[in-house]
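Worked problem 6 (solution included).
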Amino acid sequence: MRLKLFSREFLRSDLAVLLGIALVPLVLHLLFIDQYGYSRDELYYLACGEHLDWGYVDHPPFIALVAFLVRKVFGESLLAIRILPALAESALVVLTGLMAREFGAGRFAPPLAALSVALAPIFLFIGHVLSMNAFDYLFWALASYVLILILKYDRPKLWLAFGLIAGVGLMNKYSMGFLGAGLVAGLAIAAGWRHLKSKWLWLGGALAFAIFLPHILWEIHNAFPTREFIASAGSNKIVPLSPFGFLKLVALSAHPVTLPIWMAGLGYLLFAPQVRPFRALGWMSLFVFGLLIATRSKPYYAAPALPLMMAAGSAAIAALFDRFRLVWLMPVVLAVVALSQAILVPLFVPVLPVETYIRYAALLGLEVPSGERHKMGKLPQHFADMFGWENLVANVARVYNSLPAKDRAQCAIYTTNYGRAGAIDLFGKRYGLPKSICGHNSYFLWGPRAYTGEVMIVVSDSPEELRKVFAEVSVAAQATDEYCMPYESGVLICICRKPKAPLKDLWPLTKSYG
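Solution. The predicted structure is:
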């Protein structure tokens, strides 16, 4: 029997409850979507959307295509570019609840699972900005839900759906490969050879490979730039962590109150007799964590594995409470989870004016780690990366417009990182600035355009380095901002003339991957 939308039966259904919980983060995002500004990575992805290709130095092509389509259909406002990540988080919340329902452990398991994800710090922030991660988490949840259906109902043809999701997920972010590797290990360990021998599984794998193949060919054609990027980031950018340090940050990113839930979920999948058909999912989750620790990945790479574990953990807790006739306590558990998470919401969604946020964070005494080696300022990196860009572009425009018309006609604007370059590309239109050039990540592959380098405005931290390349270097302005990352405040805007070699010959020296 189908439930009519907004009927009394529907409003009492599990799905209605899940949709209601999913609305909470969506409303939060919409209310405060432009409280701060564009983030560094958003500026970069918008720029990638102007250079559609089968790959980029630091990511596959899906996010660039999303940026391109969003810009064409909705525009480039913060609301336009952030609505899809917000919807992706809400879909993730619903899927987590549906996974809990499939584990079959009573009416409280789905809302507990959904609530564990809805306001968890990592999912809340990822749903607020345009990035690969919002879609990565959604693809993992979709794939996990399909796996549950395959194992529970013995529907091998669904391996084709899994392959489709995995292929598109790989085109979004390589981390989908961790799920694939974990799945193979889980099926092998849990005596799932029947599935590994299924033609449908191999057809699903072939479909995923076919979808991902254009990117593989792009990597080959461009001499595997992503391999160089990963090596550089690993040695120069990412803070190495011990296994305990990694797990600690995973627990903090998902909120400590959810730790018992997803840890219970892992134990439930691995050992509980009533969910024996899903044993492979427990080994898959364990293998993914081990692989991430072994490869020294950032802790947030483990986040997409958590919704499945939270769903299983919610089912385990609901079953336990039902067994001991403590179901009346479940509303208390839900309230504790919701209130505990709500306290940290301002640390991950900009619901507060910046000075109020600083006071609130100081009151809580919590510092949000970035996982990188940079010095922090007044704000944590995920918020600091939203400040300073428009001011920088305004200063560049003032310098550019001070040049004689003859110089402006041939002037290139060069920056040393993709955040600065993306800001000039987005905000520079209002000042009549040309598109920027840059040696950082994919900007390097896009080259110096048609510029000769005879006259350049360079956004730099070191005029001394510029004097090694140009005969004339003058500092024309300085851009500062008290809330941005420290290395973005105080940057110098220099006018450079008379390069010691043509720009096309100097360009290989600008390459900076990481």
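Discussion: The mean pLDDT is 93.
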